[in-house]
From TrEMBL:
InterPro entries in UniProt: Bacillithiol_biosynth_BshB1, GlcNAc_PI_deacetylase-related, LmbE-like_dom_sf
Domain of life, per lineage: Bacteria
UniProt xrefs under Pfam families: PIG-L
TM stretches of this protein: none
Protein name: Bacillithiol biosynthesis deacetylase BshB1
Length: 231
């Protein structure tokens, strides 16, 4: 198992990319190791198949330069039923990969799975630093230095933004890999994702950029204050 600089976690393949593909692209370009964990295969998605979604995720990874991608195969729309197992598995992965930063979905979202993952990751990050936590005791305790929350469907004022202007087109190319989700095809049913969703992502990143004095930015929320040694 490779150690990572950033571990980004989502419920479904494409969640992480919607909220943080630009940030991950920048990290990869700096030579940092980034990994993505999807907790489910999104088997209940209205469009596409599990097999196609995995192909799309692999194509996205090629652009992102991901070091590793994991999928725990928990049930789509059933994360609360496997909550404790999910926390334990995420703790193990954090201890194995020892990321400096963990990214999770913002805790308020129209999709309940995104909210479930947010809670699962928060508990896992905390428990991963407890030496006697009963996950895999062969792995030493480790707690990432930062846990930040990215946006999928909801938007609030971010605590921190990352200037993604230089990689904005790259981010959009990553999202376009998920054609089954974001494009209307012959056998597609209409969903919020294939009805102008990518345009709304562009608007959000442009808004965060305008507020920050750059062209495009991804926003993140922190549940705890940052500590600075100077301004």
């Amino acid at each position: 198992m490779k150690e990572l600089d950033i571990l980004a976690i989502g419920a479904h393949p494409d969640d992480v990319e919607i909220g943080a593909a630009g940030t991950l692209l920048l990290a990869s370009k700096r030579g940092e190791k980034v990994g993505i964990l999807d907790l489910t295969y999104a088997e209940l998605s209205s469009n596409g198949t599990v097999e196609r979604r995995q192909e799309e995720a692999a194509a996205a990874d090629q652009i992102l330069g991901s070091t590793a991608r994991y999928n725990f195969g928990f049930p789509d729309r059933g994360l609360e039923k496997v909550r404790e197992d999910a926390i334990s598995r995420v703790v193990d992965l954090i201890r194995e990969t020892r990321p400096r930063v963990v990214l999770a979905p913002y805790w308020q979202d129209r999709h309940p799975d995104h909210e479930s993952v947010s809670r699962i990751v928060r508990e896992a990050v905390f428990s991963s630093g407890i030496r006697k936590y009963s996950a895999n005791l062969s792995l030493p305790a480790y707690r990432p230095s930062k846990l930040l929350y990215y946006f999928i469907n909801s938007t609030v004022k971010p605590d921190v933004v990352v200037d993604i202007t230089d990689v904005y087109e790259g981010k959009m190319n990553v999202l376009r890999c998920y054609r089954s989700q974001f494009e209307q095809e012959a056998d597609s049913v209409a969903t919020p994702l294939n009805n102008g969703y990518l345009e709304s992502v562009t608007y959000r990143e442009r808004l965060f950029g305008q507020e920050s004095g750059v062209m495009y930015a991804e926003g993140f929320v922190s549940a705890v204050p940052y500590v600075l040694d100077r301004l």
